[in-house]
Prior knowledge:
By secondary structure, the chain is mainly alpha-helical.
Amino acid sequence: MSSQTEPAAQPGADPWNEETKRKFQNKSKSEYLDPCQEAAARSFRCLNRNEGDRQMCTDYFEAYRACKKEWIDKRKKEGRSFFG
């Protein structure tokens, strides 16, 4: 990781834990829930800090992609739709 001030999300952090699963199952059908939103926000903050230099934010993008992949894989494994 380069000299950013905030650490990227932990690669082993589980985006689809019991708390996020409960929130997802109890949300209204029109409400959007993304357990990887914090990783996405960190990548945007990094881009803002570094004047849009994507090279400086590679770790953040990778953390977001890993989070999304894990979340989607777990949802598929459960055999549930993303829409409720």
